[in-house]
Amino acid sequence: MMNCTSVQEKMKDLEFLSALVKSLTRDAEEQRAAVGLLVSLSDDRGVIRRMGRIQGCILMLVAILNGTDDQEASCDAKMLLNSMSTNTQHALHMAEAGYFKPLIKYLKQGSEMSKVLMATALSRLELTDQNKASLGQDGAIEPLVNMFKTGNLEAKLSALNALQSLSNFKQNIQRLIDSGIVVALLQLLFSVTSVLMTLREPASAILAKVAQSESILVKQDITHQMLSLLNLSSPVIQNNLLEALNNIVSHSSASKVRTRMKENGAIQLLLPFFAEKDTRIRTGALKLVYVLSKDIQGELTEQLDYSHVHIIANIIFTTTSECEKAAALGILSNLPVSDKKITDIIKNVNLLPFLVSTMSSSKQNSTPTAMWLTESIAGVLVRFTNPNDKRLQHYSAENGIIPLLLNLLGSSSEAAKSMAALSLAQLSQNSVTMSRSRKLKWFCVPPSTDSFCEVHDGYCTAKSTFCLVKAGAVTPLIRILEGGERGADEAVLSCLSTLLQDEIWESGCNHLVKKSGVEAMIKVVSCGSFKAREKGLWILERIFRVEAYRERYSESAESVLIDLAQNGDLMLAPAVAKVLAQLELLQVQSTYF
Question: Is 87 helix (H, G, I), strand (E, B) or coil?
């Protein structure tokens, strides 16, 4: 009996326990035996303390708990970890190994001191997304929010820092909102109590993350409160508030919020930040004004004067941030094209040559920021192709805008393609009047035979007459219609329709047929948007005026047109009827009208 007791005591010493812990790394059978023996010895609190001091013990037990298919070994490992977790240091080591339930238990039920210890440790851990998900699912957020709301200064700070770390995982954001933290964060940010100032930075950072959820929109006047804090805050807090505001206005359901912000003078409040030295703050303000200015072109010039246009142009030239450049150019693209003074300002600072050079030297990539920059540039180019200002169009052509627009037709952004097609359409509108007729005999220098254009029945070049044919634009435009995306159809069809103006419609039709464009038109009429279908029908009506083309394409167009007559928008019925009549199908299908 004494020998048995002596052996049992010997098994509890550090040397034997260390050997057992080493066995946890061996094969499954030895591992199961070792962890089972450790459980049988764990009734002794001294054994638990000694196990906690053995390097790698907690790590191996967590690995067995999470990574083994052996249910017996896993259950024993969990039992040991629970026994060891009564020691706060052991609980912290478990959290470091990725086992958080003991830490969460302390956050919920521990003493004030242990809660602060756990929250502080949590804020300092390098958490993976899987860790953050586990902490959120297992209930870490609610006790941390309670600590922030009701604890002393140390508890509030440790809780906020831990919550800031957890808020970087998207699935935890809704849990934060459900906990009621938003109101408490705003109250803290408005507080003027000096001892609470250290809490404002993590509070504003959490608010920025929480604003990624659309459910924050139910909080009345939250944007107004944030805007009122901007001028009263430190740079770090200003940056976080701007991030929060940008997250809020980007939500698809935030149109009423955006309207209220504009009505309450948000743009005027943000303009001084354009001169801010801190790039992050300046970029945040530019992004916010860009979004708010999308639908108020006329009103925008009332709020943003010409001095700000100069400031924005200077930012475009000097910034190294793609995001800031995209936002600044986006604001310029939102300004009304009819304001000639704005055009003169950005023309006089040589913005167009800079944009051509920027796009020529940049590598094509499809990151969200790169696509936004491309779209913003395409939006500004629309101003430089204003069809009512031929002198400006010639200036733009001389500075390389047409090759740039052709390049943009191959962009991965539908918006950029659409705006490039619009710019080409605005240029092409004037080609008819600028093409030099071959009947004229008074050329100082005889034109090259290569410059003769079969569509305009005269001498054209891309640079001098903005001719789509000579620019080689027709094929890439048709390629867009043949593709699977439908976002640029309307602008592309508007562009191609400039080749079918009354003076040149027949030669324009011949060219579209030659470039195999009719099938693409039929495709858009089949599955495009209302406006794209409307434009497609207009083009088909012109093409089917030619008997040879009616015969050639009647069969492929017939089923599409009849389906559109039966199931399409009633507003399209007259246009569909006109084309069906050309194909001599109207009488047969007259019951559909």
Answer: coil
pLDDT 10s digits, 258-289: 989 998 899 999 999 999 999 999 999 999 99
Burial letters for 63-81: b for 16+ Cβ neighbours within 10 Å, e otherwise? bbbeebebeebbebbbbbb
Q: Return all residues near 263 (Cβ < 8 A) that are at least 6 apart.
A: none
Query: For residue 231, what are the contacts with CB-CB under 8 A and spacing of at least 6?
Result: 269
What is the per-residue pLDDT for 521?
95
Q: How many CA atoms lie within 13 A of 108 on its CB side?
A: 12
Per the CB < 8 A criterion, the answer to whether 565 and 573 are in contact is yes
CB 492 within 8 A of CB 523: no
Helix axis angle, 235-249 to 255-263, nearest 10°: 130
Q: How far apart are CA 297 and CA 302, in angstroms?
A: 9
**Which residues are registered as beta bridge partners of 436?**
459
- For 379, the enclosing helix (H) or strand (E) is helix 368-384
- The count of residues in the chain is 593
| Distance set, CA 319 to CA 52, 268, 322 (Å) | 54, 23, 8
Terminal-residue alpha carbon distance, the chain: 106
For 185, the token pair is: 């964060």
> What is the C-alpha separation between 15 and 179, in angstroms, rounded?
48
Whole-angstrom CA distances from 204 to 55, 199, 414 are 40, 9, 35
Q: Which two tokens stand for residue 145?
A: 């929010």
pLDDT band at 91 (very low <50, low <70, confident <90, very high): very high
The reported pLDDT for the residue numbered 365 is 75
Interhelix angle for 322-334 vs 279-292, to 10°?
A: 30
